[in-house]
Amino acid sequence: MNPQFKKGVLELIVLEAVRRKDRYGYELVEEVSRVIDVNEGTIYPLLKRLTNEHYFETYLRESTEGPPRKYYHLTAAGILYRDSLAKEWIEFQQQVGKYLKEGEQYE
User: What pLDDT, in 10s, does the model give residues 10-28?
Assistant: First the structure.
């Protein structure tokens, strides 16, 4: 996938994944990777920024597999932000699709 496409939609996918279920970092990497190929080095800075912007809050939960895990939970502000990004994404996708469809008449 084009890296610029991926960069533009990554934030929305992360927000949506956490909206569906509180997740810890590595679990989130795995979930997002089901949609687009990402690595931990991409996700963790984004999580930090979204937390600093108050779209996520975090809490620790004990793990049977090691130290406690930091879970991310979408705040009310995060839900509103995710909804606005989703709306923008749908409009953007429709406009690009419409333009590409119109271009087919020139083939």
Answer: 999 999 999 999 999 999 9
Q: Which of 41, 32, 40, 28 is nearest to 6 (CA)?
A: 32
- Which is nearest to 82 in space by CA: 6, 7, 23, 13? 13
- Measured between alpha carbons, how far apart are the two ends of the chain, in Å? 25
Domains and CATH numbers, the chain: 3-106 (1.10.10.10)
DSSP the chain: --HHHHHHHHHHHHHHHHHHS-EEHHHHHHHHHTTS---HHHHHHHHHHHHHTTSEEEEEEEETTEEEEEEEEE-HHHHHHHHHHHHHHHHHHHHHHHHHHHHGGG-
Burial label for 57, CB within 10 Å (0-12, 13-18, 19+), is middle
